[in-house]
Write a structure and sequence with these properties.
about 300 residues, alpha/beta, four-stranded antiparallel sheet, 11 helices, about 20% strand, globular, binds adenosine-5'-triphosphate, binds magnesium ion
Length: about 300
């Protein structure tokens, strides 16, 4: 009797465990389904028929032609009737107060949004002929709110060109360009160091150190266009000077779009466009704009005064 009762209660436990396992199997299956349906998401950006795509003209850079743009659900225009031509190897800086539309222009260039009116052209071809994948292959961009990947340092940089993720030499070369090599030297595990606090042994970095890593990401791929949205906002003065000393070489022959609020950075560009409420207020070289005595000259003078 004792034997039967013991066996019965034991098997009850076993069945209970079995049912629990089936239950969690089902639950995990649901999560996996979410993951797989996420992987299957296709980009919904329409791409024009490639058969009608005109030939590219390498002597042309980027053109915004009468572009208007409104964010969904907003009534005011973020970009208003903007026309801008960027030469085939020009370095253009965008300046302007917060909310002037600098980041929006970059998003339009990467087809993260479509212009409401007007067109954007790359090498003389309407951007609507380019799939987002192709654009990401040809345009390297680091956004203001770049991602801090809680992963090893080498991968954080390698994500700038996933096709070279295993290429350690390339990763280290990119790091040397942005000063991220110094960050790696400061960590006991070097490029293998886990960054962020999500995992055990992960090291949290300072804002400027993260930024150096993000900047190295931009130098990983050999892209035709380099877009840097406030790349040096968190860098100390010495680090910023170092980067821009190398900058001319780094961006040789490339189109570079640079957004910055620091005029010491901005003046390195060939031309500077001052944006105001989605429009271009003035455009020209540093010397031209200073001579003009407009907004740029005023703002430059304001920042310079702080150093006297
Ligand atoms: N995702 C969004 N949805 C709705 N409105 C947006 C969105 N992003 C930006 N805006 C609006 O568009 C305008 C331009 O914003 P944008 O981010 O281009 O400014 P910015 O010049 O990059 O400013 P900052 O110097 O602060 O980076 C702002 O009025 C902003 O409120
Ligand atoms: Mg911005």
């Amino acid at each position: 009797m004792t034997l039967y009762i013991t066996l019965f209660s034991q098997s009850q436990g076993t069945f209970q465990g079995l049912l629990d396992n089936i239950n969690s199997l089902y639950e995990n299956g649901l999560f996996l389904e979410n993951l797989f349906s996420f992987f299957e998401l296709k980009s919904e950006v329409p791409v024009l028929d490639q058969k009608t795509r005109p030939a590219e003209d390498p002597s042309r850079g980027i053109e915004f032609r009468g572009v208007w743009f409104q964010y969904p659900g907003r009534t005011e225009w973020a970009v208003e009737d903007l026309t801008l031509e960027i030469g085939p190897s020009e370095k253009l800086a965008l300046v302007g107060e917060n909310g002037a539309g600098k980041t929006t222009l970059i998003k339009l260039l990467l087809r993260l949004y479509e212009p409401s009116r007007g067109a954007v052209l790359f090498r003389g071809v309407d951007l609507r002929y380019f799939s987002p994948e192709e654009l990401h292959q040809r345009i390297g961009a680091i956004f203001q709110d770049f991602v801090h990947y809680h992963l090893p340092l080498s991968e954080n940089i390698g994500f700038g060109a996933v096709e070279h993720l295993e290429d350690q030499a390339r990763i280290e070369a990119a790091a040397a360009k942005s000063g991220a090599d110094e960050v790696a030297r400061g960590l006991p595990e070097g490029y293998k160091a886990m960054l962020g606090r999500w995992f055990d042994k992960g090291s949290e970095l300072s804002g400027g150190q993260w930024q150096k890593i993000a900047l190295a990401r931009a130098f990983m791929g050999d892209r035709e266009v380099l877009v840097l949205d406030e790349p040096t906002a968190a860098l100390d003065a010495g680090a910023e000077y170092e980067i821009f000393r190398k900058f001319q070489d780094l961006s040789e022959g490339k189109i570079t779009l640079l957004v910055s609020h620091r005029f010491s950075t901005v003046r390195m560009a060939d031309r500077i466009a001052v944006l105001k409420a989605g429009r271009i207020e003035e455009i020209g070289s540093h010397a031209e704009l200073l001579a003009r005595g407009g907004t740029y000259a005023k703002l430059f003078e304001l920042q310079a005064q702080g150093y006297r």
